[in-house]
Design a protein that fits this description.
Layout: H1 8-15, H2 19-32, H3 49-61, H4 67-74, H5 80-89, H6 105-112
Helix pairs in contact: 1-2
Domain Transposase Tc1-like: 52-113
Protein name: HTH_Tnp_Tc3_2 domain-containing protein
Region (Disordered): 93-113
Length: 113
């Protein structure tokens, strides 16, 4: 579009990007002849998709498995929060076991008798 003579503002409106982004892209293209997207911010991923599926599968097969057991079975150094995040992404939440059934007023009365 720029080589066709379009203005930076017109190109930005057409591709739904800011004028600054279009200008930076055009400058990189004219300077280097290529356009490469910048890598994302944040920490790099420690697991690949296969390991993510393995984490979720272990939790589905045995709901009582702990995060430390999953971590040792996967075989890579990941923190427990990573395992919790993968399980949350799969809509798996931790469940605490019942210690006792909740008592109703009728139960309390029978117990006192």
């Amino acid at each position: 579009m720029k080589t066709a003579g379009w203005s930076t503002r017109r190109v930005a409106g057409q591709v739904d990007r800011s004028e600054c982004a279009v200008r930076n892209c055009w400058e990189q293209w004219t300077r280097e002849g290529i356009h490469a997207e910048k890598t994302g911010s944040g920490a790099t991923r420690k697991t690949v998709r296969r390991e993510d599926r393995r984490i979720v599968r272990q939790a589905l097969v045995d709901p009582t498995v702990t995060r430390s057991t999953i971590r040792s079975d996967v075989g890579i150094a990941i923190v427990p929060q990573t395992i919790s995040r993968h399980l949350a992404e799969a809509n798996l939440k931790s469940k605490s076991p019942f210690r006792a059934l909740p008592s109703t007023p009728e139960h309390r009365q029978l117990r006192l008798q």
